[in-house]
Write a structure and sequence with these properties.
Elements lengths: L1 E10 L2 E11 L4 E5 L6 H8 L7 E6 L2 E2 L5 H7 E5 L10 H5 L1 H5 L4 H14 L16 H13 L5 E5 L7 H13 L1 H4 L2 E6 L2 H7 L2 E6 L2 E6 L1 H6 L4 H8 L2 H8 L2 H4 L5 E2 L8 E2 L5 H7 L5 E6 L2 E6 H17 L1
Parallel strand pairs: 3-8, 3-9, 6-7, 7-8, 12-13
Antiparallel strand pairs: 1-2, 1-4, 4-5, 9-10, 11-14, 13-14
Bound molecules: adenosine-5'-diphosphate and magnesium ion (MG).
Pfam family, one: ABC_tran
Protein name: ATP-binding cassette domain-containing protein
InterPro entries: AAA+_ATPase (IPR003593), ABC_transporter-like_ATP-bd (IPR003439), ABC_transporter-like_CS (IPR017871), P-loop_NTPase (IPR027417)
Length: 318
């Protein structure tokens, strides 16, 4: 859906993006991860032509973006930024309806879509007539997302969308994102410097440094098979906790004892659930049950760790 080949942005004094190539498939979320100044934002802004490349090719749906009319391209691509870019003197309703109005949707359809988005992003309808300044940072960020989604673009570009929020709010919004069907079916390029965010939201991660992609792959590939020392060191601090994001209950199942007859009040989890999400639910010594390979398997916080230890030993041995 998005194809990028040998993309370079040379400023007079600085090579911001240096020969970057990647593809983003339909419905895929690719995260551009890296420290400040690594070239993430410049790469993202070249996709919707806010910045013109020095050289290289960008295709969206098989067509070079330089050959598209700018307003048509931007209509297909939603864009969410940290500062939200909401107009302070427009109401929340007017902010969300901005693009549908430009596209001259009829007023009824605009109202329906606006209310649908508010409900989806859990914003009360009474906010329709409020102004951005009256909302909290987290609520403004949801409005920014609603506005980007309003005209149903197939592609969403997000630049540190949660960057201005506190860690607890960030984590809660991330969990909601992952559960929203409308977001899951979009092609997304998300920029962040937050490693956990990248692991929670990315189908694949492109780790950037000095304008170059150091490695691109699934979170599991980057963590278990780092391409070089830079990648290895980048994740070193959080190496253990990140395992909880790349392994599921099913991965753990060979290292856990069977449960013959799960108790009737047992909480049953899908086998593909990430271990991080399981631990979030497991407060204290209680257990959860899941089914994999026709077995019922019980897991408790006390048994997750030894089983994970064995799993890791096998992973690094293989
Ligand atoms: P990131 O989003 O990863 O923090 P950016 O893409 O914003 O990084 O910037 C990458 C590099 O390019 C930085 O070193 C930045 O200083 C430089 N840069 C960005 N914009 C310009 C510009 N207009 N002129 C010169 N250098 C720039
Ligand atoms: Mg940036």
């Amino acid at each position: 859906m998005i194809v990028i080949r040998h993309l370079t942005k040379q400023y007079p004094t600085h090579l911001a993006v240096d020969d970057v190539s990647f593809e983003v498939g339909a419905r895929e979320t690719l995260v551009l991860l890296g420290t400040s100044g690594s070239g993430k934002t410049t790469t993202l802004k070249m996709i919707n032509r806010l910045i013109e490349p020095t050289s290289g090719i960008i295709e969206v749906n098989g067509i070079k973006i330089g050959e598209r009319k700018l307003h048509e391209l931007r209509r297909e691509i939603g864009y969410v930024i940290q500062e939200t870019g909401l107009f302070p003197h427009y109401t929340i309703g007017e902010n969300i309806a901005l693009v549908p109005r430009l596209l001259q949707w009829d007023e009824r359809k605009i109202q329906d879509r606006t209310r649908e988005l508010l409900a989806m992003l859990r914003l009360p309808e009474t906010y329709l007539n409020a102004y951005p300044g009256q909302l909290s940072g987290g609520q403004r960020q949801r409005v920014g997302l609603a506005r980007a989604l309003a005209a149903q673009p197939a592609i969403l570009l997000m630049d540190e969308p949660l960057g201005a929020l506190d860690p607890v709010t960030r984590s809660a919004i991330r969990r909601e994102f992952r559960q929203l069907e409308e977001i899951r079916k979009k092609t997304i390029v998300l920029v962040t410097h937050d490693i956990r965010e990248a692991f929670e939201l990315g189908d694949r991660i492109a780790l950037m440094d000095g304008g170059r992609i150091q490695q691109i792959g699934t979170p599991r590939e980057l963590l278990l098979h780092p391409a070089n020392d830079f990648v290895r060191h980048f994740f070193a601090d959080q190496w253990l906790s990140l395992q909880l994001h790349v392994f599921s209950l099913e991965d753990l199942s060979p290292y856990l004892p069977d449960e013959q007859t799960p108790s009737p009040d047992a909480r049953i989890f899908p086998a593909h659930t990430q271990l991080a999400d399981v631990l979030q639910e497991l407060a204290g010594p209680e257990s959860v049950v899941f089914q994999a390979n026709h077995r019922f398997i019980t897991v408790q916080s006390a048994t997750i760790w030894p089983a994970l230890g064995q799993l890791l030993q096998n992973q690094t041995a293989s």
